[in-house]
UniProtKB/TrEMBL annotation:
Its main location: membrane. Belongs to the sodium:solute symporter (SSF) (TC 2.A.21) family. The chain crosses the membrane at residues 12-30, 42-64, 94-120, 126-145, 157-175, 201-218, 238-263, 283-312, 332-350, 356-376, 381-400, 406-426. Keywords: Cell membrane, Ion transport, Membrane, Sodium, Sodium transport, Symport, Transmembrane, Transmembrane helix, Transport. PROSITE patterns: NA_SOLUT_SYMP_3. This is Transporter. It is found in: Cell membrane.
Amino acid sequence: MNKENYQYYISGAFKLGAGFGIVSLLSRWVTGNTILSSPETLIKYGLTGGIGYSLMGAIALMLFGITAKKIRERYPDHQTLGDVLQEKLHPGGYIYMISLLLLLSIHSLFVQAMGAGILIHMIFPIPIYAGMFLFLFFCFLIGGVGGMQSLHKLSGVNITLIFSAVIIIPVYFFMQEGVYPVYDGIKLFHPYILYVKNTETIYFVLTAVLIGLGQVIIDRATWQRAFIIQKEKVRMTFILSGLIWATIPLALSSLLMIIIFGGSYDTIYSLLFELVERIQSTLLIVLFVLFCFSALSSATSAELHATTTLIVKNMLGRFRHLKDKEKLQYSYWIAGIISLFLLISVSLSERQPIELLFYFGNIYAAIITPMLYIILSKKRLATFVPLISLLGAAGGLAMLPILNSLLSIVVSFAISFVLCVLYFLFESIFSKYKVTNLS
């Protein structure tokens, strides 16, 4: 395929089999947020929360995999989520959904970049803006300029480094410290981590699964991979990716338990710095640093590429006919502008990753049912269907004075689900009534 062809930039040169498809999906979803949220989840919600966080991504990928084959069968010639929305929605609904996707894309990129900023600043003694500049420039070259083919080339290396770190480093520590001393230390100094009857943890797990599914079902990079994985293997690829992804937060949780079993700690994020200090082997320190960089850069590059494609193909391309060369030029410029925005905003922000993860939680929960409706419906849908997500999110946020933030996210999902069911029943009854009158 010609490298000047914009399809090459979006999809790469070949279809992915199950093995490489899993690698590509994992390189998208093993993120800086995974690394940073694991310690925060473990400390706030205990071991059950850590297990729940691992279920978040696993269930989300597996459930999306169930519908992925339907997506490939119904939309065989599409390349992006925006292509599907353009076919299934009227202009009003399409504009709303594309605007929402752009907002959530920037949010997702900001979360990734924020995680990168924290980790880079903790591991390397350099100013955050200097580290972020180098990191974002690398992501710009890979995701913004190189496109999908460059992401494919690096994904295998990234996943090798990630799994080498999460397997070798815990084994090294357990060989050094032993299993029972770790358990006894946790029980003595941090017994709350072993407490499994915390009601709030149940709400967290349920909410995390809803947010995870909402993120996956509207993730631009995930949809691009769903279209380039071989159709007969796409469902199994997503299911296996979910199962494998679940092991990574669990491995990170085990690492953190090894660090804290000996006593107190300064802050949640200082745990990762203490991990670096405890690693005696230079080789393992290098492996841990490469693990962090691989996870951060692969996810950010994939999201940057998908967001750039969304803007050029599904926004600019809708209002103006662009040649492939023009699309590539616009993609480079837009990727550069987004990278600059991330550099400035991350350098000024003081929020924490898990706060940012739940910041748009109501929208992620409310979007699940409308998106499933759009995917599975056989006809073009009214603007009201995508707007249900707005009503669901608004309804959940309106309940915040009464409920806590976790329950309000569940309410958002429930409102959206009920409205979609009511709309489906109304459409079915109206269609039957119309047919009866005509006959």
